[in-house]
Amino acid sequence: MSLDGIIKRDFIKFSIPGDRAVAxxxxxxxxxxxxxxxxxxxxxxxxxxxINDILSxxxxxxxxxxxxxxxPSIDKKDSIEKAASIFLSGDYYYLxxxxxxxxxxxxxxxxxxxxxxxxxxxxxxxxGLIDQNSFMSVWEKTPxxxxxxxxxxxxxxxxxxxxxxxxxxxxxxxxDMINAGEIISGVTESDSSKGESGxxxxxxxxxSVLIGTSNFYLPGNPVSNYLKKEYSKxxxxxxxxxxxxxxxxxxxxxxxxxxxxxxxxxILRDVDILKAYKDLI
Length: 281
What we know:
Layout: E1 13-16, H1 20-30, E2 34-39, E3 45-50, H2 51-56, H3 80-89, E4 94-99, E5 102-108, H4 109-119, E6 137-139, H5 144-153, E7 158-162, E8 168-173, H6 174-180, E9 182-194, E10 205-217, E11 233-234, H7 240-249, E12 254-258, E13 264-269, H8 270-275
Parallel strand pairs: 1-2, 6-7, 11-12
Antiparallel strand pairs: 2-3, 4-5, 7-8, 9-10, 12-13
């Protein structure tokens, strides 16, 4: 089965060079954490800009220096299995579909999961798929900017949040971080002084250059302020195919595994589910 039927041709694009503030607003407005970057005035694919890239270098304004360029591309005639293998080979969520050196659309990991499930049926529950290394928790009063550092340091895109008694009370993810942050603009002054005669050793007058700057800041407010009010939940005994159906229906990249006592057992990501089919594709 080829990819042609699941290519998303209407997707959010961003031109490079471009303004970081505009990129962040695009993420906020569309509730996404990644943008496809194209060369300005063309459909030539350059890379992907993610909120984690921005958070890792909040003082960097040039998106060309932030974006990931090592993203593999795919052809619309390629198979679903080939796309799945690429998703398993690295930390990718979107693959650009290239035709005549131009981006004609994208394919997402979430969109190929139902097709993989239909073609390669397996009778397993999700309990054995939880990757504990992809999940971290923080205290509800942890400042948002510290929570973002935890996400970056441990390379996770979401966090569980615990109250004073260690009870699980909700989740925050990278989209919550982008919504919590703001760009603060300012001016820095670069000055040099010279003597009236122009000699380097004569310091009597000063010239200044005003440089506009902007940084992306996360507040010191507790992370509990940004908890998701609703998020997808499943039981660990749920069949894998049913979990895929739920993720498709709720348009999510991950679900929380909740135990009978309402505690959090872990997080199941779309890529964790795909790993269950690794030996079949």
